[in-house]
Amino acid sequence: MCNKRLIAPFSAQDTREQTAFCVMHSVSICLRLLLLCFLIPSAVRSQDFCVADQCRILEFSPEKAFEEKRLIQHTIRIVEVADPRFCENLCYMEPDCVSINLDKREDRHGNYKCELNNVTHEGHEHQLEDREGYRCICRPGFNGQRCSEDIDECVRGLHNCSLNAYCNNTKGSYNCTCKPGFTGNGRECEGITSCKEFYDKGKKANMSIVVTLLIDSQPVPVLCHLGNFGCGDGGWTPVMKIDGRNTTFHYNKPYWSNYGEFNPTGGQTGFDEQETKLPTYWNTSFSQICLGMKIDRQLRFIVIKKQADSLFSLIADGKYRNTSLGHDTWKSLIGSDASLERNCTKEGFNANCGGTISSKARIGIVSNIKNNCSTCNSRVGFGTGGWPFYSISCVSVLCHMRDFGCGEGGWTPVMKIDGRKCSLGRDTWKMLIGPQASLQLKFNNEGFNPELVLSETTRTSALPVTQGSDLALRDTLITRTQTNTADHRVTDVRQGLFSVDEFRNLNVPRVGIFSVHDDLECIMRCLQHPSCISVNLALEIRLRCELLSFDKYSNSREFKQNESSHHYHIVISMSVPKGITIAVLMPFAKIPKGLITVHASRGPTSCKEIYDKDTSSISGVVTLFVDSNPLSVFCHMGNFGCGDGGWTPVMKIDGRKTTFHYDAHYWINYDEFNLLGGETGFDEQESKLSTFWNTSLSRICLGMKINQQLRFIVVQKLADSLHSLIADGQYRNTSLGRDEWKTLIGSNASLQPNCNKEGFNAFSGRSDRSKARIGIVSNDQNDCDSCNSLIGFGTGSYPKGAKSCGNEALHDKLDDGGKSIKAMGYILNNADHRVTDVRQGLFSIDEFRYLNVPRVGIFSVHDDLECTMRCLQHPSCISVNLAFEIRLWCELLSSDKYRNPREFRRNESSHHYHIVNMCAENPCENNATFRSSFTDKPYRCLCPAGYKGPRSSMSGVVTLVVDSQPLSVFCHMGNFGCGDGGWTPVMKIDGRETTFHYEAHYWTNYDEFNLLGGETGFDEQESKLPTYWNTSFSKICLGMKINQQLRFIVISKLADSLHSLIADGQYRNTSLGRDGWKKLIGSNASLQRNCNKEGFNAVGDRDLAKVRIGIVSNNQNDCYSCNSLIGFGTGSHPKGAKSCGNEALHDKLDDGGNSIKAMGYILVQ
């Protein structure tokens, strides 16, 4: 039989795609068996009639027909046709026709009777009369004898939805919905990264609307402000909302310099009072900034024209960057009441007058009554600080600042102090009492709900930090108490006296690492971690706290001098839970090209593991490391009803609620729910922990509590996780038996006698009947089609009273009558996660590639390092796919691209990593034999006769791991002019440009410039790499190229980085001598004869000639007025000095006046 289609005028889908359609009417065509094939008239084509979103497609499939049937009592028109095929066309032309009856027998005139019907058989089955020779043919989307079974196109893959869309099954059809962060019709979905992009594509112009943007590959819902609301036409992306009554975004708060979000839901609510900071702060580039303030419900806006990669790039480094709006424009944010002093008017980003108490603003203007900017007293802006109101200063957007000063001038009440802490001072508080007031001298902890947190002992010392840091280091005695917010029971007390060793670092594996505000927060972190006994506090861009489980006494050789770190260790401490460690990522010093090196080890990840190490362990809160993250759980130890051992909690379900109903998304996703509930035992706090998807199991303990009576059963099941048994919706049986399941309820349990389908995803044949994620369903009939009773966890559907956990029973043949028992349910597992060995691997990356082979595991991860570590932790894994679909997914594979080349495909949303098979990628030279390894030495080259030594390397692009990030650079190997070895590029400077002029901010900040220039060797591409601030060295190679002639000199200097030698502006001398520096230029070099001040930040006394690296000289016998220089990062005088080369003016020059612009190169080793 042939399969042709007839397209109705309501169709929207081109029949050429034949995989998706929408139906305005349900259609079933009744036809005589004598008709063998339905033909589409040539005039009727899909492209002629289809209109988007208004379509139906009639497909006549004789192989799916009813036999001997005819629909009666719904005929709206009877027509005689000369050809049976015309009956279909007549139905197509009749608006109300949805089915036809066709009598194939010819009348005496040679015609056929065609009956047009206005209903289908659905709902009218009783009116389908038997009629010899008839059949009914199902339309697409339905199956079954009566065309009543819906086909799920989504499950069967019979759809054409985009990879970035969800497929949603409907009755007889389906629809496609783009995933969050993508827009389109579902068949084509594209990512939107900014509100401007959304606006430019003509989406909902001139109205505000919540749009999900793709920010840093993550979906972020924000309220896009579209059209002109005060900042000009276009699409405006929200970044921050700041409540000037709070100190959340005070000038000195870390939110201005870190990558931390604050209340992201506030980004969806428009111009209200919800403070927020979104990832758009550091991830969204722009050319205009809209600034608004709301005062007494009056909104005012101004616009700054500024091109930047992000707002973070303008603010985080603390450097001042000016704007030119003017005094009056900034005042327009406040309105007629605005007040500023008349002088200074320093405006822009990080505007401040110097000093800790002067006015300052992250974005805004500061001003002074005097004719300088030394002590500003007024401001308008965002992220403000300093005087006036030094301790509680206003922080923008909704801030009504009367910046007229707090000394001279009038005072107008315009602020309310609304912070959690307001440092008014002890004397101010005493004024409430009067002259009789009395307070002790120490602590003075004030604000709302003041608590005693710590006591300080005598010594305070300072760590060298960047400007604006308030870091102070102390010997400190700290006591920590953990409380439950519900009943305030104290669950843990730990205290310790910490001693500080300044400028020291203990180089041992860490059990935790955090970005902190000060040393006290770091010490508190240590006390909160059961394994921590010492910390390193280091300054690297931000303040980093490293928690250590060792001290300097047990690792004296690793206790070393470090100029950017202080070390603290506990002198006196209470007992610490034993046996806790954490996985550590350890990049190796030498990493072959294009590779990521991962070293993985594991600590306890289950309660069973802790119990097995110490069978005397008692039940209580323990910190596990689940998915490489610390997780506090209540471990149930011993036999409480499920057998001996250590039992790890997974879920707690309140049967009176629908949180974990059968259809709740928590059963199929990777979301946690109320982590604190995992610490409280068999109580009524619902909870879902990450152990649901991260902890393997061999036994599952199921418990129910009814009227304070606890009962348990045990399921023996080996699986990677509970998620792997449930999330895919597939039924997996168990064999406990109905009586065993009934023991969970007790004597009142009731089930029907038949079906008794038990296990995971146990459900009836009908979707509207009883079902349970874990449990049993039963029926009074001898099948599973219409089950009416259940016992289990994650229950749903029928009986309607089934919410999430317990026993529900209706209808006939019940053990103990009808029941609706709501239970408190508990799910725990028992598995051993100890890893007995350590595995290492070199991973090579293939970008935008995907290996389509069966997976041995799948996880949601934070980054590629976590994914590769997951692979090393799985004994069968040798490669991974890292794909982005809403979140970052890591797929573990037991095969690689070499064994499955045909399945290795292009994919725009995935990268592929594989453990390097060095036999396939032999790095050995001169026919040496390769030997692979999974130790700290990834391979060995066995040299043939006549050769010796390791593999000799050649210059070329290599992927380094710099600050834990991959960085591709051109490594210069061997002796090209600076001596043998491997040389790491840092900067390339074009002396004809001012990019790296002495005053350029690149010398003092942590910004990169043109990373691609780091891969191209000694050419003319300027570049600054992260190696400028992240790479330590003992030698610096300096090179200049003039007229294609390269010359080099070497400085022997030990330092943590080039940044550490230059950024603070301090002069540091070298001793090459003037002739040594002149070698860079060649025979044309020219310098004056005196002064000859050389090194880093070499500047003459009058701030004339100056260089970041180089030499300045003078014709007089002092350094007062230097007029000549050779170096890198040049500036000032002579005026021709741009950034690199030799500049010489005035008298007593070696070779007369010079202005030689060179291409400069800086490398380190």
From TrEMBL:
The UniProt record lists the keyword Nuclease: no
Cystine pairings recorded for this chain: 138-147, 924-941
UniProt entry keywords in alphabetical sequence: Calcium, Disulfide bond, EGF-like domain, Glycoprotein, Repeat, Signal
A single GO molecular function term of this UniProt record: calcium ion binding
Keyword Protein biosynthesis: no
Domain EGF-like: 110-148, 150-190, 915-953
Pfam family, one: EGF_3
PANTHER family attached to this UniProt entry: EGF-LIKE DOMAIN-CONTAINING PROTEIN, FIBRILLIN-RELATED
Protein name (database record): EGF-like domain-containing protein
